[in-house]
Amino acid sequence: xxxxxxxxxxxxxxxxxxxxxxxxxxxxxxxxxxxxxxxxxxxxxxxxxxxxxxxxxxxxxxxxxxxxxxxxxxxxxxxxxxxxxxxxxxxxxxxxxxxxxxxxxxxxxxxxxxxxxxxxxxxxxxxxxxxxxxxxxxxxxxxxxxxxxxxxxxxxxxxxxxxxxxxxxxxxxxxxxxxxxxxxxxxxxxxxxxxxxxxxxxxxxxxxxxxxxxxxxxxxxxxxxxxxxxxxxxxxxxxxxxxxxxxxxxxxxxxxxxxxxxxxxxxxxxxxxxxxxxxxxxxxxxxxxxxxxxxxx
Length: 297
Hints:
Among the domains are: 2-81, Tyrosine recombinase, N-terminal domain (DNA polymerase, domain 1, Orthogonal Bundle); 110-234, hpI Integrase, Chain A. 52% of the residues lie in helices and 3% in strands. It contains 12 helices and 3 strands, in the order H-H-H-H-H-H-H-E-E-E-H-H-H-H-H. It has a 3-stranded antiparallel sheet, with no helix packed on it. A hairpin with a 4-residue loop joins strand 1 (154-155) and strand 2 (160-163). It starts with a helix and ends in a 27-residue tail after the last helix.
């Protein structure tokens, strides 16, 4: 269990998440003992039986999903990092009733590009905002990835930018467009030093807020609010990223898009494969295999 804990720490999970996962694993191991089974013997149907037992004890679908997540992490560890099991028997099993929010209006390529129009105001924050919008629109970054960018992640001479890994995404190195390199140079030599002067601090963080902290949540909230005034169809950062990924899937193969997104699993990328860019209906990624109202498994 200690080695599993170190594995979760390396993946960036919080102490509370690690404690929850360990409890889920211990609960599952107790069930395996009651069934006279070893972890290496577990298959897909065995996990279904375990979930069924939880359901019979009154566990909600949310609780089952939380338990399942911890067990999946353990089996990923046993498969990928220790080799104790030859394959992950239920890597893509999900619980019905845990729908993921999807967006109804994706942005067209023209609409994405229009977001990069220079802001009416000038100054250091305008230069920073221009850089942030271009990274959202061209590299499909999310808020956390923008916050994690450091000065040494830039390779302007080669036209590259390095995106650091998180517990949810893989690291990757992405191409920058020529005008992005120019905008970044302007920000690095003019805008960023001006912001640092106002803040009165030194920092290796690339994108800086005008506040005292390192978070960009408020900065991006104001940015999106201002963008909405000129682009009423805009809903938020998640909509931008979903639109970018969907357009990538029309240009590149699935594996390349997985790399560009930083998705750990190909199934995460597959969820963006849709045929209609005008409406993306709410959907559940997997049907609960134990739901008596559903005949699908």
